[in-house]
Specification:
13% of the residues lie in helices and 38% in strands. The chain is globular. The protein folds into three domains: 79 residues, Elongation Factor Tu (Ef-tu), domain 3 (Beta Barrel); 79 residues, Elongation Factor Tu (Ef-tu), domain 3, CATH 2.40.30.20; 30 residues, no CATH class.
Length: 226
């Protein structure tokens, strides 16, 4: 588990293809790796990776074909910046929110504009994730815990303060940049819990839908009950 509070910026030192997946070597001079052991977890742009080798201020991790397919790690190249965070401990301050490091989908940056001393950034999430994103809720973008300002369909915006802008990879973003998204895990579990026994069934019957909500007595869009 992680908090979404980025510890430091790292860079990609090497990318070695290995039988269809990838061995990633990360240079992390701002991270204290003295107590890091092989097998420990480090979030790299929001992707939980397992440390497979250590060398002074560098660590290596294997990126599976699955991770390459559902994250942006395969888009990166040598020298690209990375948001890094070591897994939390029981004594860690939970300054962000609970983050699993399991990316739910890839979003796209739509626009950026100054907002006083901060930067207002709009992203488009995959349609399947839109129902988990709520105004004033939490979302993880490339491993960084952020508060959602507003939502319009699958488009949402966040406000990035100067401190976060300077100490994360947000400073290299531009329109069209693809980012790793992880929605609030509480929302995901809440959806499954609401389904009750229906969660064991596959297909449409295993999802919360408008018709299912109506069956449970929730009001429809007009504010009346069916």
């Amino acid at each position: 588990m992680f908090t979404g509070i980025i510890e430091t910026l790292g860079t990609i030192a090497a990318m070695e293809p290995r039988g269809g997946d990838l061995r990633l070597k990360v240079r992390a001079p701002g991270m204290d790796l003295a107590d890091t052991r092989l097998g420990d977890s480090i979030a790299v742009n929001g992707v939980c990776l397992t440390v497979t080798a250590l060398d002074n201020d560098q660590f290596s991790a294997d990126v599976s074909r699955e991770s390459l397919g559902v994250t942006t790690l395969g888009d990166l190249g040598i020298g690209d910046r990375l948001n890094l965070e070591r897994a939390l401990t029981l004594s860690t301050r939970l300054g962000g929110h609970l983050v699993s490091g399991h990316v739910d989908g890839v979003g796209e940056l739509l626009s950026m504009r100054p907002d006083a001393r901060s930067t207002r950034v709009h992203f488009r999430a995959p349609d399947a994730l839109a129902r988990y994103i709520a105004a004033k809720g939490s979302i993880t973008i490339d491993g960084a815990s952020l508060t959602v300002n507003g939502v319009d369909g699958a488009v949402f915006d966040v406000n990035i303060i100067p401190h976060t802008w300077d100490l994360t990879r947000f400073s290299v973003y531009k329109v069209g940049t693809r980012v790793n998204l992880e929605v609030d895990l509480v929302a995901r579990y809440l959806e499954r819990l609401m389904l009750g026994d229906r969660a064991a069934h596959s297909g449409a019957g295993s999802r919360v839908s408008e018709s299912w909500l109506a069956e449970q007595g929730f009001p429809n869009h007009s504010g009346t009950r069916d």
